[in-house]
Specification:
Layout: H1 5-15, H2 20-27, H3 31-39, H4 49-56, H5 60-63, H6 72-89, H7 91-104, H8 109-121, H9 123-128, H10 133-154, H11 158-174, H12 178-185, H13 196-206, H14 210-241, H15 245-261, H16 267-279, H17 283-299, H18 320-336, H19 347-358
Length: 364
């Protein structure tokens, strides 16, 4: 980490209308020493920091530009900078810079949660260049889990702690450590009978703050629609596993209808449909849905800005590089996951996979 103490000394000295000689006399050094500090040629001795800070009317923390943790704005800037490195220079370069940031702020839980999430997001890039992808995957996911654990322990607010805990639960589930995941789920707070956002929407309407009420309502709608979609996916999966195909189709039809009604991504409902068709032994239907699934993946942007229901609900849209990264992860899943085993050897399946592969730009 490079210290910016020289520019701080220069700015504070000028603000105090001190010459280099005057500042040097105050702290007992030569004017040449002050000049070297300000140009970055050298740093003040540690024993000089308190008197130097007093002479400049600063705290030692301000003199060193010390912050125990980055602000939310700085976290956002760090996230964007690291994403750009992962996108443009590859996983190794991104990880190197991410670990340097972690060393700079070793006790910032929110930062650890953020970087663990980035590692997950760019998992496909890490595995693409690994000599042993399976071993690399296990090591990286375990590292993410450690970051989420530390993130929860070191976060300051309950919302930050809860976000890290939810990521821990998902990671433990992915690793098959189900008892640990269940134990964490049992620690989650019960859902409140009335959401604070509902009260806030009513308040906005009472104050005639209609745009604010509309915007918050759109966010609420998006949240609740995703909750309904998740519930329908789980119900379809449960019915499939019990071979209750009429119930599975009823839930799946509702899932498709809601996605279509709200103009959302069709990938998940098409994936569920493929598995359902395979369970029923309908190869033709499974292949048809798989081709549609590839089309949906290629159209997938996570951009709600033009959606008639959810316009304005997001502050950040994934870049083209991030979308390509998500597609790489999807391609790896398609190629390695056994869920497509019944149709994997079909020519239409292979053709659709190659069409998807061709649409993903090569990594830098």
């Amino acid at each position: 980490m490079e210290l910016c103490i020289g520019t701080t000394i220069l700015a504070a000295r000028r603000a105090k209308k001190l010459t280099q000689e005057a500042l040097a006399d105050l702290v007992g050094v030569s004017a040449a020493a002050v000049s070297k500090w300000e140009t970055g040629a050298s740093y003040p001795d540690i024993t000089l920091l308190p008197p130097l800070a007093r002479a400049l009317g600063l705290t030692v923390d301000a003199l060193l530009d010390f912050h125990p943790a980055p602000s939310n704005e700085e976290l956002h800037a760090i996230s964007e900078r690291l994403r750009a490195v992962f996108d443009e220079q590859g996983f190794a370069a991104g990880q190197q810079q991410a670990e340097a940031v972690l060393r700079e702020y070793p006790s910032c839980g929110q930062l650890k949660t953020l970087i663990g999430g980035l590692y997950f997001h760019y998992l496909a890039s890490a595995l693409a260049h690994a000599d042993d992808p399976e071993q690399e995957s296990e090591a990286l996911i375990a590292h993410c889990l450690a970051l989420f654990e530390q993130g929860e322990a070191q976060s300051e607010t309950e919302n930050e702690k809860m976000g890290a805990r939810l990521l821990r639960i998902n990671t433990l589930t992915m690793l098959g450590r189900c008892e640990e995941a269940e134990a964490l789920i049992d620690t989650l707070p019960a859902r409140q009978p009335l959401d604070a956002d509902v009260l806030r929407i009513n308040l906005y309407l009472a104050q005639d703050k209609v745009p604010e009420a509309e915007q918050l309502t759109r966010k609420q709608l998006l949240t609740h629609v995703h909750e309904v979609l998740s519930a329908l996916m789980y119900l379809t999966t449960a019915a499939r596993r019990q071979k209750d195909f009429p119930s599975a189709h009823r839930c799946w039809d509702a899932l498709c209808a809601i996605n279509e009604l709200f103009a959302l991504d069709r990938s998940n409902d098409l994936l569920i449909g493929i598995l359902l068709a395979q369970d029923e032994g309908s190869t033709e239907q499974a292949l048809k849905l798989f081709e549609q699934y590839i089309d949906a993946q290629l159209a997938f942007t996570l951009d709600y800005r033009q959606n008639p229901f959810f316009a304005g609900t997001q502050t950040r849209v994934p870049t083209q590089n991030e979308i390509a990264e998500m597609r790489r992860l999807t391609l790896r899943s398609i190629e390695t996951d056994g869920q497509f085993a019944p149709i994997r050897d079909e020519s239409r399946f292979r053709a659709a996979v190659e069409r998807f592969r061709a649409a993903i730009p090569p990594e830098a």
